[in-house]
Amino acid sequence: MHGGIGATPGMQSFVACASVAIVGALALLGSRPVLAAYEVVTVTNGGTVDGVVTLSGTAPNAVPIKVTKNQDYCGGGLENVLVYLKDIAKGKAAPTEPLALVNEHCMFSPRVQGAMVGGSVKISSNDTVLHNTHPQNAETNATIYNIALPFKGFSVTKPLPGNPGLIKVKCDAHEWMHAWIMELEHPYYTTTGADGHFTIKDVPPGTYTLVAWHEAAGEKSEPVVVAAGQTAKSKITLAAK
C-alpha cells in the first residue's frame, strides 16, 4: 500500500479470498434469469385456453381415509388439478376478493386452488367440531400460521406469503384433512372441475407454457399458442403413479 501502513500477508490473503467470493457470487447471479414483475394491462381481444386433463393407465385404488376422531361427524373428499400459464409477464388484473378455504364436514374445500402473490385467504368453519388450519411451505414444512377454528361460523382473513410457491394446508386435529394453494406471480390459473375440464380466459395473444399439477399424479407441461379472440384447445394427460 502506498503512503500508509503496508498490508500484512494475512490481510492480503483475506482481500484475495473476499475478491474471489464476490466475483463468484456475481457470476452465480448472472447465470440466473431475472424475471420482470407482472404488469397489469388492459387485455383487448384476448384469447382463451380451454381443455381437459385426463389420467393415463390404471388409476390406483383409493386408500380409505381413517377417521380417527369425531367418527360420528366426519368424512368425505375432493380431487382437483391446478392448471396455469407459466412465466406470463403481463395481462389482466388479479381477483380482488380473498380466497375461500372452508373447513366443512371434516375436509377442506376447495382442496386445490391457485392464488396470486399479494392476495389473502378467508379461513372459515362450517363444522361444530374443533378444527385448526395450518398452512406450511410445501418445500420446507415451515409454518406460515396456525389458526384455531373453535366453533361453527368462525372465520378469519389472513395474508398469503409474499413469494410464489406451493402451500400445503393441514388440520392437526384431524390428520386426514389436507388442501393445497399454489401462489403464482400472475392471475392466469384455474382448477379443473369433476370432469377434468378447465378454462383460462383473457389471455394476451402469444406462446406460453401450460402446466397441470396434481398432488398425486405430479406435474406436466406443454406449449400453447393463443391467438387474438380465439380459443386454444388443450388435452393434458397425467400418468398414474
**Count of runs of 4 or more consecutive helical residues:** 1
Helix content: under 10%
Alpha-beta classification: mainly beta
What summary fits the major beta sheet?
5 strands, mixed
What is the CATH superfamily of the largest domain? Cupredoxins -  blue copper proteins
CATH-assigned fold name of the largest domain: Immunoglobulin-like
CATH architecture label of the largest domain: Sandwich
Question: What amount of the residues lies in strands?
Answer: 35-45%
Mean pLDDT: 83
Briefly say what this structure is.
This protein has 241 residues and is mostly beta strands.
Entry keywords:
241 residues; mainly beta; Immunoglobulin-like; 2 domains; four-stranded antiparallel beta sheet; 1 helix
Write the layout of secondary structure elements.
Layout: H1 9-30, E1 39-40, E2 47-56, E3 82-86, E4 90-91, E5 99-104, E6 107-109, E7 112-116, E8 120-125, E9 131-137, E10 147-149, E11 155-159, E12 165-170, E13 178-184, E14 189-191, E15 197-203, E16 206-214, E17 218-226, E18 231-239
Parallel strand pairs: 1-4, 2-18, 5-8, 7-13
Antiparallel strand pairs: 2-15, 3-14, 3-16, 5-6, 8-11, 9-10, 9-12, 12-13, 16-17
Report on the architecture of this protein.
By secondary structure, the protein is mainly beta. The chain folds into 2 domains: 1-34; 39-239, Immunoglobulin-like. 9% of the residues lie in helices and 43% in strands. The protein is built from 1 helix and 18 strands. It has one helix spanning 9-30; strands at 39-40, 47-56, 82-86, 90-91, 99-104, 107-109, 112-116, 120-125, 131-137, 147-149, 155-159, 165-170, 178-184, 189-191, 197-203, 206-214, 218-226, 231-239. The strands form 5 sheets. The protein has a 5-stranded mixed beta sheet with strand order 7-13-12-9-10, with no helix packed on it. It has a 4-stranded antiparallel beta sheet with strand order 14-3-16-17, with no helix packed on it. A 4-stranded mixed beta sheet has the order 6-5-8-11, with no helix packed on it. A hairpin with a 2-residue loop joins strand 5 and strand 6. The radius of gyration is 24 Å and the shape is globular. The N and C termini lie far apart (66 Å). The relative contact order is 0.24. Mean pLDDT is 83; it is low at 1-34.
